[in-house]
Amino acid sequence: MSRVRVLFIDAYDSFTNNIVSLVENQLGVEVTKIHIDSYVGDLATFIQPFDAVIAGPGPGNPEVLDDVGIIASLWRIDETHIKPVLGVCLGFQSLVCAFGGRMERLSRPRHGISTQVDTCGKDLFNGLTDFQTVQYHSLRANLGQPEPSCIASEPCSELTPLAWDLSDPSGGPILMSVKHRLKPFWGIQFHPESILSSSEAKNVIRNWWLLCKKWNQSREDLRGVEKTQSCSLNNDASGDTYTVDSLSPSSMPATPSSENSMSSNTSYTTTRESSIAENYVHTAIPLDRLTVSDIVHRLELQNDEFVVLDSEQRLMANLGRYSIIGQVDRITTKLTYQAGNGVIKITTAEYTALEQVGSLKSALSYLKNYLNQHKVENGYRDIPFWGGLMGYITYEGCLETIGIPTQTHANRDDMCFAFVERSIVIDHLHGVVILQSIKSGDEIWLQSTSSKLLGTSPTTSIKPATPEALISRLPEKSSYMSKIDRCQEEIQAGNSYELCLTNQAAFKSRKSPSCTSWQKYQTLRALNPAPFASYLHMNSATILSTSPERFLNWARPTLDEHGRSLSVCQFRPIKGTVQKTQILPDGTPHGVALQEAMQILSTPKETAENLMIVDLIRHDLHGVVGSGNVTVPTLMQVEEYATVYQLVSVIEGSIYSTPALSSRTSGIDVLASSLPPGSMTGTPKRRACEILNTLEDEPRSIYSGVIGYMCVGGGGDFSVTIRTVFKWDDEDEGGNETWRIGAGGAITILSDVQGEWEEMCGKLGSTRRLFKE
Ligand SMILES: C=C(O[C@@H]1C=C(C(=O)O)C=C[C@H]1O)C(=O)O
Ligand SMILES: NC(=O)CC[C@H](N)C(=O)O
């Protein structure tokens, strides 16, 4: 029997793949996805191979043709070509508009809010009790009924209401579901696929499917007996009892995921003997009292290009176990890309090559192939990095991966990775330093480097230094506040559910050999300890980061019990911020203590903010790893950082793949499909980024992109480049350099304008303290 197929029409939403996953898992069907503006020729003909259609959620207004595209035509398909349709949110609203309903703005948009839905207990809701479910909408469908009821009436006599949200007496009833009286059209305003929606809400999908099957069967029967007269399509299923057991879930079991695939009781041989495997050599030595800074100093890296992913100031037991120092020298190969020009540049010791790749997304595929060609299988098992690509991607580079064109700046790389062959990994948990190289025959370097580290007693000879800011450009309060208003207007209009608004400060300081970038970084990391701190100097970019936020980590693949390659990946978005108690210069305390922070971070405003990003990341991840392979092991946990409390969630995915090396799905595919980081955009991602582009005054640049590594052994780790001070060499002028800091925060309909301004200033303050102003 051929597999049942469902067509999903995606209105560029950031929850689409979660619905696809729910449908595939619950119904055992195959879902094909197209966009609202995909060219399909005649829609009626196009949908014929499908058993049913889902018209998805999305930004905008169903009365605006550009926002719904071909969804608007679904409802006009003639009787002979008609197929069962489920409209979800925007799709539901479009159904209502097609049959006489109107849209109006909610007085209080409902984004990431979980409420009870009261149902008629029939049809889509047959056998289901009233349930909790999440909503994401700004607009409300109005059927012109004086009171909420489940009986169709003028002026929308073709639509039968099936469910209402009556939880907000002052805001009034909100229509949650309808069906068409004669045609096989159903709609739901709520989001059953959200991680916080109840299983009862999810069962609506099963009920819909039973109704579809029944309708399709009656259509078949009619065709079978070749009835010539027109038939009644009344498919009211009220009162029917359905056996949901007859459905065949086809989910691939979600593999229990672990935070870190390394065993926690790893032991090292801290000898100076080197092991050689292919072109990989390493030496492990005791860390003793060496610091990351000592190592950088002893190896004399500080005045050259190098990268440090720095976890020395470990804050949490499960984060920041390793620091990685990547050596970059004259002969290190670099792979760079500037947004907008479609060309990846490969610079080696011998030559510079340009390859037309088209986009940053394809540049990442290029890097994936590059790493496959330099694959190492026998590195030191217990550390995550053996060598490979270390670098960054700017926010504008990230935008290109979602099809938003951006301007480029000559001499500035939007993607810059060095192919690091010599590296030093410090395991802070076990106090071990692993020196390693993937250059063939590099034992001499190993020996000389370990002698330098073992040599003299550890002293920190590079002193942290504090730069003096000559001219500072700080965010302007009235301008920022008016942008918050504009974000909220966009949200009111249904164009977005959450927007991460940001802006930048700039500090000019004198270039000085007694206050180098590395010294500045030393100061910053002491002032603002963070689990994902990093220092990078490559080409014209210098980055001093104290990021608290992991973007994406993926483990080196292993074989599962079925012989498939499996790599577990993890996102750790932060959304929800409260300032910790601090004593201001005038002696007054500011901010809150843990107990109060916990209370604030559990209010609907903060949890909605976090939930939206969790659902968005689940969507990004589902798009690569497929249905049933995404879990949320931690939902909204409060974590303490140097100056703030933050609400953190963890989303994990199992990347299974076929043995064929070239077609293997890897963490790099997840990376390429998940940029820019959802916590820095808002949702739906694409529309949010378009809106933010019109609001923000300048490119975000390094801020709000990602920084990290992709290892030759198959793993990877990236943080979100926030709480970061950065500069471009082309802005150096007259002995001065210009350092920039971006800061922002997520704006929702529940945001308080003054509160958001203060939150942004608080985040800016955590790194601005680097400068003496
Ligand atoms: C925008 C920033 O941070 C982001 C926004 C957060 C929020 O809105 O609560 C929290 C962490 C980051 O994802 C920033 O640090 O500048
Ligand atoms: N999630 C959605 O589909 C939202 C639909 C519409 N843009 C609204 O805000 O009401």
From TrEMBL:
Question: What keywords tag this UniProt record?
Answer: Folate biosynthesis, Glutamine amidotransferase, Transferase
**Biased composition, Low complexity: where in the chain?**
255-269
CDD domains, per database record: GATase1_Anthranilate_Synthase
Q: Where is the composition biased (Polar residues)?
A: 242-254
Q: To which pathway does this protein belong?
A: Cofactor biosynthesis; tetrahydrofolate biosynthesis; 4-aminobenzoate from chorismate: step 1/2
Can you name a GO cellular component term? cytoplasm
- The Anthranilate synthase component I N-terminal domain sits at 291-431
Q: Name the Gene Ontology biological process terms.
A: 4-aminobenzoate biosynthetic process; folic acid biosynthetic process; L-tryptophan biosynthetic process; tetrahydrofolate biosynthetic process
Q: Which residue intervals make up region (Disordered)?
A: 242-269
Q: Which residues form a coiled coil?
A: none
- Tell whether Transmembrane helix is among the UniProt keywords: no
Domain Glutamine amidotransferase intervals: 8-202
Domain Chorismate-utilising enzyme C-terminal span(s) in chain numbering: 477-763
E.C. number(s) listed in UniProt: 2.6.1.85
The family annotation for this protein states: In the C-terminal section; belongs to the anthranilate synthase component I family.
| NCBIfam families on file | PabB-fungal (TIGR01823)
From the Swiss-Prot or TrEMBL record, give the protein name. aminodeoxychorismate synthase
Species in which this protein is naturally found = Gomphillus americanus
